[in-house]
Amino acid sequence: MLQTFTRRVGFVGSLLVAAASAVAQTQIKIDGSSTVFPITAAIAEEFGQAAKNVQVTVGESGTSGGFKKFLRKEIDICDASRPITAKEMEEAKAAGIEYIELPVAFDALTVVIHKDNKFITELTIADLKKIWAPESKVTKWNEVRPEWPAEKIGLFGAGSASGTFDYFTEAVNGKSKASRTDYTGSEDDNVLVQGVSKDKNSLGYFGYAYYASNMDKLKAVPIVNKAGKATLPSTESVKDGSYNPFARPIFIYINKASLARPEVKKFAEFYLTKAGDIATEVKYVALPSDAYQKCLERLNKQSTGTAFGGHNEAGVAIDTLLSRPLVQEPAAKKTEEAKPAEKK
Asked: Is the pTM of this model over 0.70?
């Protein structure tokens, strides 16, 4: 079943998973990250087979798009490839929404090039910043490294509503959403796959599962990590921490009020018991088994809030993440604004 589903992910932008019965009695609505979509959709498909009186809809409008619907109380669960932001936390409080933050897997954000590209053997974060910085004027490869050809770079990346966009810009440019804008952006990773696969001098980035499903068309670029070693995305490099800073946790956020409905609670429990196996099958990295148990405890206690304080953070370990206190109010950012005011 999952092999069939995985093939289908390459062509379907959203999935309706319904019971076999003609009329569903209850409905669970999910939307958000295209990165988390393959996991959630596969789990929803299995759940739909077991719970024939429940209809589960899974959309794919990007993390920011999903949070907008979540904060308007249009959906029960938001898939997210980055933590909830300070602004979204404030909007949730204003709307009276309490949420349960649950990490469900690790993704290796993958930088890709055309399969026939022969000159790129690695990229540093500094290389990527030259290309993707908001003020970047780089248009040709030899402007990144002089030994590379004077060929125009075709750029493909996550759309601004995507959590992948937020994470990538934070890791590369030091600030979420700070990016040049003259590139082909989309919340649909399949659009990015097609773009890079058709342009020999292109560069793109998206979640690992979409690369893994298209290895015949694309080549992953080794990223020089903090230790100075060029490292490819893989299960091993994510688990041992060497694929930094692009290994990241991915999440679901559940509206606490929705958990009062038995079908939502059963689905959430089902999700956490299946997430490890499904994540592995759709080419993500499962959390340790004890991490899923801790998430189940958080779910059953209905512990609300976020471990991030409203700010994105590259390179956080899952043990650290699950041991942090959950907060309802945004934490102060460590920026220039926190410094004492200058004397006039």
From this structure: yes
